[in-house]
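>> Question from a student workshop board

For tomorrow's exercise we were told to take the sequence and the ligand below, predict the bound structure, and bring the output to class. My setup keeps failing. Could a helper post the expected result so I can at least see what it should look like? The ligand is 2-keto-D-gluconic acid.
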Amino acid sequence: SHSIPVIAYGPLSSYLEAQLQARFTVHQVPVDADPASLPEEVREARALIPFGAVGASAAIMDALPKLEIIGLFSVGYDKVDIEHARAKGIRVSNTPDVLTDDVADLAVGLLYATVRNIAANDRMVRSGAWARGERPQLSGSVTGRRIGILGLGRIGRAIARRLEPVAGEIAYHSRRAVMDAPYRYVPDAMTLARECDAVIVATSGGPEARGLVDAAMLDALGPQGVLVNISRGSVIDEDALVAALTERRIGGAGLDVFVNEPHVPEALFAMDHVVLQPHQGSATENTRKAMADLVLANLDAWVAGEPLVTPVI
Ligand code: 8YV
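>> Workshop helper replied:
Here is what the output should look like for this input. Compare the format with yours to find the bug.
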């Protein structure tokens, strides 16, 4: 397989990069490269390995006439034109399961950090304000809160399991009720927001989920309500979120994902009721290694002509 040309699309981890180099002829393509003007030898690539958030547009697929597989370094495939890949017979693999626990941990961490003002209080201590006599604002509690989970897939369920011992109630909304889930199913996102004190967004992204959390839903969550998002920025109407936070129509937000990463709406920087993270849900040593190994296992299966380990299509 050493002579098979593949594309590392965006900055991969050094481990994945080295492992790819041990197997393939690897071409580096920056994510902002114009697909139409790729060098001749790069156009020979038979596999594309995008760093999660980059995805794969119809244009990059069309620029690579020999492309057979897109091996995603992410569970999410919202930035991949799946219909285009399907139409062209290009296979797509992702990295489910291996990142579930770490992403769920971060969601719970963001809930605590937001409700208990952990980030703002850290800044208060560091600034010397505590030593000068300032005292922390009293916060809400996590224990006893009614938690709503939007999207009860693998990650949503892992979040629910972690919060079971402390939540007053756990409710969820998904496109369908999950038969074996011991949580209250709510038929729409609005009701979830109205009936819960905190909503954690754990749905997959993509066109169907775009703007699912809108201004009306934020108002239903209310001035004491907290929103956490570890899914995709696009699931929330970001302008409506900034407005709701500015006007204190919701209580706070813990956000790991944004519409235009790595750019975050600057209005959020000055807000102490917001906790901001640089899309780090899966960014632990264990999980990133496991994700890389799963990308490689899918590529090995493809080379061997075997079924993919974790196919999307
Ligand atoms: C990113 C993620 O892929 O798995 C996903 O869907 O969003 C993350 O794991 C990771 O940041 C690499 O891009």
